[in-house]
Specification:
single chain, about 400 residues, alpha/beta, 16 helices, 9 strands, globular
Length: about 400
């Protein structure tokens, strides 16, 4: 770990970018490298590891001529372009009805992380390292979906996933039983009793308290273990063939990551770096809180929507005032109040485990005020090791001439 961290410490400012944007606007790429201090391009290779861009060779050629360092962002088990598959995860007991406007990630199905679905990911990475000499590989969507997609939190995988569930005593029947227990308990609670159950608890601990069991803690830890072992299985094959490659993954913020199967301390054992994604206020932070508030309000007749929202925010480690949340704004699509975004990132940074290796936090580099982005960058550099990666280049290089820079 130490050698990889020393290597990564040289990264100060990076950008996520598409290969098409590099090809279409090479002068802008040159400006970013030679005048704006960008020292790493994270080149998106698509979510589906079975598909390859027709312009990737050309884009990497341009970066090589610039002398620019790059890594590939490689998709894993879900996202745009991945088709239905026999190993798609399924939900046997849907908890709630909603749509992708309320839970953005619910629009996609997810493949079961397994040796069979790892194969094309490994093949793509090895092909990249054979044809090019990247600085590293960053896995994306190497997790389950976000906490707003409540039904997906209880999706069940195929093949070895199902067998491992049974061995851990996490059978579909047991999970369904405890979900029913949660719903029945909520139906009979007053606001004061609800507050008593929730006091000092995370969402997972609250679900345990409502069910009168430790089923939910064990279930979400099982999912974290499964993701870590899956990432480790992929990287073990890469290191065997290409031992000096810098390997890591991006991750949902630490206050939400356990629900999505990402335990930072566990991932640090197999990742040379972790890129916490702090640029998705609406999808990763606000939507989960609003969706769980909607669930609580629906299941507990004695509370109002505003009270449910306060409860939900508290279970995720925030207050509605910190995040400038209001029930009437739940279906908005913007990122929300910029001062609230700063408060969100500050609290997420304080939740990062200190023992989890090298962090390269990812911020939104477009669509926010310059002063807001500058403040966020200063916070990240102070609290998380000095590296900042941006999604969007406007903050650094001015208006981007191609959408692939966003």
């Amino acid at each position: 770990m130490r050698a990889r961290n020393q290597l990564s410490s040289m990264v100060k400012t990076g950008l996520y970018v598409s290969d098409r944007a590099i090809c279409a606007t090479p002068d802008y790429a040159r400006l970013l490298v030679e005048e704006k201090g960008v020292d790493l391009f994270v080149v998106r290779s698509g979510f589906d590891p079975r598909r390859e861009s027709s312009v990737l060779d050309k884009a990497i050629g341009k970066l090589n001529r610039l002398g620019a360092r790059y890594m590939f962002l490689v998709g894993t088990w879900w996202g745009e372009g991945l088709e239905d598959d026999p190993l798609t995860m399924r939900n046997r007991s849907p908890v709630f009805k909603y749509n992708s406007n309320e839970a953005h990630e619910s629009q996609w199905s997810m493949l079961t992380p397994s040796p069979e679905t790892h194969k094309p990911i490994v093949e793509r990475i090895l092909e990249f390292t054979r044809r090019y000499e990247p600085f590293g590989i960053c896995l994306t969507h190497a997790r389950f979906k976000h906490a707003a997609d409540i039904n997906s939190l209880f999706d069940m995988g195929r093949d070895g996933f199902s067998d491992a569930m049974d061995k851990a005593g996490l059978t579909p029947a047991r999970i369904r039983l405890e979900l029913v227990n949660v719903i029945k308990t909520l139906e009979g609670l007053t606001l004061s009793k609800l507050a008593t159950h929730a006091e000092g608890k995370t969402l997972i601990e609250f679900l345990d308290a409502l069910s009168g069991s430790d089923l939910f803690s064990r279930w979400f830890d099982f999912r974290c273990d499964w993701i870590e072992e899956s990432v480790d299985g992929i990287f073990a094959q890469i290191r065997s063939a290409r031992g000096n490659l810098f390997l890591g993954a991006n991750a949902i913020g630490p206050l939400f990551s356990r629900l999505s199967g990402q335990n930072y301390s566990r991932l640090a054992g197999t990742c040379g770096f972790i890129q916490p994604l702090f640029g998705y206020m609406r999808w990763h932070v606000l939507q989960p809180i609003y969706m769980w508030a909607k669930f609580f309000a629906r299941q507990c007749p004695s509370i109002q929507s505003a009270e449910a929202l306060c409860l939900s925010a508290k279970l995720f480690g925030y207050t509605v005032d910190e995040l400038s949340m209001n029930w009437k704004d739940r279906n908005q699509s913007d990122e929300g109040d910029e001062a609230a975004i700063i408060r969100m990132v500050k609290k997420q940074l304080s939740a990062l485990p200190v023992d989890s290796g090298h962090y390269m936090p990812v911020l939104r580099g477009h669509g926010l005020g310059v002063e807001t982005t500058r403040t966020l960058a200063e916070l990240v550099r102070e609290k998380a090791g000095g590296s900042v990666i941006y999604q969007g280049s406007n903050f650094i290089g001015g208006e981007a001439p191609h959408p692939g820079w966003k």
